[in-house]
Amino acid sequence: MISFESDYITGAHPEVLKKLIETNFEPQPGYGADRFCESAKAKIKKAIGIEDADVEFIAGGTQTNAVVISTALADHEGVIAASTGHINAHEAGAIEYTGHKVIALPQKNGKLEAKTVSDYLSDYYADESCDHMVFPGMVYISHPTEYGTLYTKKELTELSGVCHSYGIPLYLDGARLSYALMSNNTDVTLHDIAELCDVFYIGGTKCGALCGEAVVFTKHNKPKHFLTSVKKRGALLAKGRLPGVQFDALFTDDLYFRIGKHAIGLAEKLKKIFSDHGIKLFIESDTNQQFPVLENGMMKKLREKIDFCFWEKYDEDHTVVRFATCWSTTEADLQALEEALR
Amino acid sequence: MISFESDYITGAHPEVLKKLIETNFEPQPGYGADRFCESAKAKIKKAIGIEDADVEFIAGGTQTNAVVISTALADHEGVIAASTGHINAHEAGAIEYTGHKVIALPQKNGKLEAKTVSDYLSDYYADESCDHMVFPGMVYISHPTEYGTLYTKKELTELSGVCHSYGIPLYLDGARLSYALMSNNTDVTLHDIAELCDVFYIGGTKCGALCGEAVVFTKHNKPKHFLTSVKKRGALLAKGRLPGVQFDALFTDDLYFRIGKHAIGLAEKLKKIFSDHGIKLFIESDTNQQFPVLENGMMKKLREKIDFCFWEKYDEDHTVVRFATCWSTTEADLQALEEALR
Amino acid sequence: MISFESDYITGAHPEVLKKLIETNFEPQPGYGADRFCESAKAKIKKAIGIEDADVEFIAGGTQTNAVVISTALADHEGVIAASTGHINAHEAGAIEYTGHKVIALPQKNGKLEAKTVSDYLSDYYADESCDHMVFPGMVYISHPTEYGTLYTKKELTELSGVCHSYGIPLYLDGARLSYALMSNNTDVTLHDIAELCDVFYIGGTKCGALCGEAVVFTKHNKPKHFLTSVKKRGALLAKGRLPGVQFDALFTDDLYFRIGKHAIGLAEKLKKIFSDHGIKLFIESDTNQQFPVLENGMMKKLREKIDFCFWEKYDEDHTVVRFATCWSTTEADLQALEEALR
Amino acid sequence: MISFESDYITGAHPEVLKKLIETNFEPQPGYGADRFCESAKAKIKKAIGIEDADVEFIAGGTQTNAVVISTALADHEGVIAASTGHINAHEAGAIEYTGHKVIALPQKNGKLEAKTVSDYLSDYYADESCDHMVFPGMVYISHPTEYGTLYTKKELTELSGVCHSYGIPLYLDGARLSYALMSNNTDVTLHDIAELCDVFYIGGTKCGALCGEAVVFTKHNKPKHFLTSVKKRGALLAKGRLPGVQFDALFTDDLYFRIGKHAIGLAEKLKKIFSDHGIKLFIESDTNQQFPVLENGMMKKLREKIDFCFWEKYDEDHTVVRFATCWSTTEADLQALEEALR
Question: Residue D62's domain is classified under what CATH number?
Answer without folding.
Answer: 3.40.640.10
